[in-house]
Amino acid sequence: MIVPRRPQEAAVEPRLLVWARESAGKDVQEVAGQLKVSQETVRRWESGREKPGLAQLEKLADSVYKRPLATFFLTEPPSEPPLPRDFRILPSGTTPPLSPRTRLVIRQAQRIRRLTRDMSRDLGRQITTSLERTRPSDDPEAVAARVRSSLEVDDQAQSAWRDDDEALAAWTRAIQKRGVLVLQMSFPMDDARGFSLVGEEPPAIVLNRRDSPKGRVFSLFHEYCHLILSDGGICQMGEGEYRRGEDRVERFCNLFAAALLVPGGVLQAHPLVSPRRAPSAWREDDLTKLANRFKVSKEVILRRLLRFGRTTQGFYEGKREEWKKKTHKPGGRQNPPKKCIQERGVPFVSLVLESQRRDRITYSDVADYLGIRLKHLPKVEQLVSEGA
Question: Which option is the CATH number for 14-73: 3.40.50.720, 3.30.530.20, 1.10.3720.10, 1.10.260.40?
Answer without folding.
Answer: 1.10.260.40
